[in-house]
Amino acid sequence: MAKPFTPADAGLHICLWGQCDSTGFATRDELNWHVKREHLLLCPVPGCLESVFTHKDILDSHLKFSHKEAATEKTARQQRDIHGIATAPLATPRAFTKRAGEEEDRLLKMEMSIGISKKRCGDQLKSVLERRSKRVNGGTPRAVESPGMTGNRTPKPLDTASFPIVWEHGVLPFLAEFLPKWCGPGHVISVARGNTPDSRRIFIMTRRVVSRARRLVIAQHVRDLLPEPYRSTASFMFSVGTVNRLVWARGLSKEMPDEICVPRNPFCYTNPCMGDSIGISEDGDDITATLGPCVTVGDGSYWLVNFHPFVDVSRGSHPVPIEHPSPADRARCLYEKHDALSSNSLNFRIGNLAATSGFNLETTRISHDPYWEECDKEPPLIVTDWALISASTRQANILRKFPTANQRKETPVTLMAPVVPGATACSTGRTSGFQHGQVCEIPAYLDGAENGTGKASREWYIEEPHPYDDEDSWIRGGIGVEGDSGAAIVDCESNSLVGQLWGRNRYHGPGPRWAYFTPILDIFDDIQERCGQERRPQLPQYRDDADRWSVYPVCRTCFDLHGYLESRRSSRESLMSMIGMNEGRTGDNENDLASVSELATPKDQSYLARSYLVRYVAHDEATSSVGGVVSPAPLHAFSTSMSQAVSPGNPELRSPYAQALDDEDLYEKCQGTSEVALGKRPALHPPMARVDGQQSAKRQRMV
User: Fold this and answer.
1) Could you tell me which residues are beta bridge partners of residue 446?
2) Rounded CA gap, 502 and 421, in Å?
3) Is 165 within a domain?
4) Which helix (H) or strand (E) holds 526?
5) What is the mean pLDDT of the chain?
6) Same domain assignment for residues 502 and 647
């Protein structure tokens, strides 16, 4: 009797895995592919660094998106097995065999380079920690453990190293080397605080979407490079976007970018200062930016501003006059024929463009900020984007703030200081007004294609301040929105000038919004070198006492109208109140006026207004004084005991109307009065005793 024919007789390779019903395979490589894919749940592509997959569908998705050619061949093998074509080896095209070999060599080289880079980063981090340990211990490194040592074991230097040191030497060099290969040009790498004091979020922003498999690979490599104490506290976030040199709050798509607030400081002042509007009108285009500090360069006095708003108009041979406020900002006042700006005695010109950081926006310089020396890091490049405007004043600088009921004399900014990571900073911009923010812990890494210079740089940035609970307001009107280019960054604790704002990342969808700035000491060094000065530029030291107080703009009508519009609730807030989106946030209390529906009636509004005064004014009075935020609107004090300063960017948007409709609201009451005849509902007697409180509440909403 003849022996039954088996796949082994045809020279095929057989899978001996239990209960495997597959037919034979033409080559051993095909058998290995089958075993890894079907039984071991490993990626069968040689050189792939992915770990074990939890489900076969996830592995198939990985093959589909990360190894397209291999997935195509895999499909061909599956079709061959389905049709039972197993009597002869499958003929592999020569071209595909060549491509597969090249792909395998490329992946092998990539795997080797990744391993070498990880080892190099680890060795570099250990070397830096040893050098720092020698300096601390007087030239003798502390031994980890010596024979005969008693007591607790000395911790390893790697486990006790600060996160900035670990990031600068052990993680960022690896990401800077491989992200261009994995994600293409135009990426930003940064680290921000997490939800807890010890946690951190690693942000990677790219121009195109990164696949989930690639994101997992990047996160795994970073975790491998982090010491054990930081692995559990580090999280990752990948976003798509760009960095711009200067709607619902968060843009939904590329065609629907982030919404920004109405300009909060577009006014004209007799004596300009930091944070005021400047600009020029050229060939029908209106350019608007923010005025920076007044500086002394040599024997001259100049205003420091950003160069990028004026890069096009500076290429001509004629002088470039800069005006305050910008033509666009005073257009509405002139259109409505307000008398204040129509006077011939006003001169809007503040000076001519005198010097710039270069002829284009590709200029950089090596930073000398102390942070790099403290981290034992080679000083990197930073973006330089400055211009000087001739000035007719030598007064010391103050940030523009609006008058308040309890205002104090402002302290001039006369000092310069290096950047302090994590410090609280403040700034006044033409669009955002006076705002607070927090300096980042670690400067961001910007790819050369992202910062516009063609060279990678490290940039400091401002992020949302404590308590980090109003991200929408930060997106709409935080530091660095459009129109704030050139604003000064001031350290709140030391009242020192630390930087100049030049850009903000602008995306749609998830991710934080950060305002990038250049350290002021590096800017002054660049001015000294390019202008051929013997010493670094200085800040004016003297300012008259009479000029240290906040003042109203020239056009009081525009100012009052702006304060009224700021006090009104936006259409988005109204929609949220009507559909109940505020429930569980600000509307937990029964009479919380922040979440009242626009459909409610004015019944008992005077009673609600008095409740508002009792419940919220005293509370706001305490909270608003902590941040030092001032009001942009004219003085409308409730009384000497209830006056308060409200943030110019975040006014209290509370309505005096009732939260719900009552049955009696649907019918008119016959009182025999003229009010009934006119269709008005007479107010109840108890609220009538609180008319003064009602009027005060209305005035407050104009702030």
Assistant:
1) 188, 457
2) 18
3) yes
4) helix 520-530
5) 74
6) no
Q: Is 544 exposed, middle or buried (0-12, 13-18, 19+ CB in 10 A)?
A: exposed
Instruction: Answer with the residue of higher pLDDT: 543 or 94.
Output: 543
Structure tokens at 665: 């609201």
Residues 358 and 445 in one domain: yes
Question: Phi/psi of residue 416, each to 5°?
Answer: -115, 150
* Distance of alpha carbon 428 from alpha carbon 407, whole angstroms: 17
Report in angstroms the alpha-carbon separations of 632 from 303, 528, 538, 624. 24, 37, 30, 14
Nearest Cα neighbor of 519 from 410, 384, 673, 616 is 384
| Residue 304 placed within a domain | yes
Do residue 337 and residue 459 come from a single domain? yes
Q: What is the pLDDT of residues 120-168, one digit of tens each?
A: 999 999 999 888 888 877 665 554 444 444 444 445 667 778 899 999 9
- Which residue, among 382, 612, 342, 407, has the nearest Cα to 502 in the 3D structure? 382
Burial 650-687 (b: 16+ CB within 10 A, else e): bbbbbbbbbbeeeeeeeeeeeeeeeeeeeeebebeeeb
Worst-scoring range by mean pLDDT, 496-500, 574-578, 684-688? 684-688
Q: Do 176 and 319 share a domain, yes or no? A: no
CB atoms within 10 A of CB 428: 28
Partnered with residue 381 across adjacent β-strands are 366
Q: What range defines the domain where residue 349 resides?
A: 277-547
51 within domain boundaries: yes
Averaged pLDDT, 589-607:
39
pLDDT in tens, 518-539: 999 999 999 999 999 999 999 9
Residue type, 137: N
- Closest listed residue to residue 128, CA positions, set 171, 87, 187, 97: 171
Q: How far is CA 136 from CA 130, 133, 157, 166, 377, in A?
A: 10, 5, 12, 18, 17
What's the number of domains the chain is made of?
4
- Indicate whether 208 pLDDT > 60: yes
At position 411, the amino acid (one-letter code) is T
Supply the CATH number for residue 416's domain: 2.40.10.10
**DSSP, residue by residue, 414-454:** -EE----TT-EEEEEETTTEEEEEEE-SEEEEE-HHHHSSS
**Quick one: 57 and 166 in the same domain?**
no
* Residue predicted with more confidence, 679 or 204: 204
Judge if 615 and 667 occupy the same domain: yes
Token digits of residue 448: 């050369």
Q: What residues have CB less than 8 Å from 480, skipping those under 6 apart? A: 246, 429, 432, 462, 487, 501, 503, 504, 513, 514, 515, 516
Of 547, 576, 595, the residue that ends a domain is 547
456 plus 528 within the same structural domain? yes
Name the packing angle between helices 212-225 and 94-136 (round to 10°): 30
Report the distance separating Cα 320 and Cα 312, nearest Å: 11
Q: Which residues of 56-83 are buried (b: 16+ CB within 10 A; e: fewer)?
A: eeebebbbbebbeebbebbeebeebbee
Do 670 and 600 share a domain, yes or no? yes
Q: Give the 3-state secondary structure of 194-250.
A: CCCCCCEEEEEEECCCCCHHHHHHHHHHHHHHCCHHHHCCEEEEEEEEEEEECCCCC
First to last CA, the chain: 104
Tokens 């998830």 sit on residue:
510
List the CATH number of the domain containing 184: 3.30.70
Q: Is residue 563 part of a domain?
A: no
Pick from 547, 576, 607: which residue ends a domain? 547
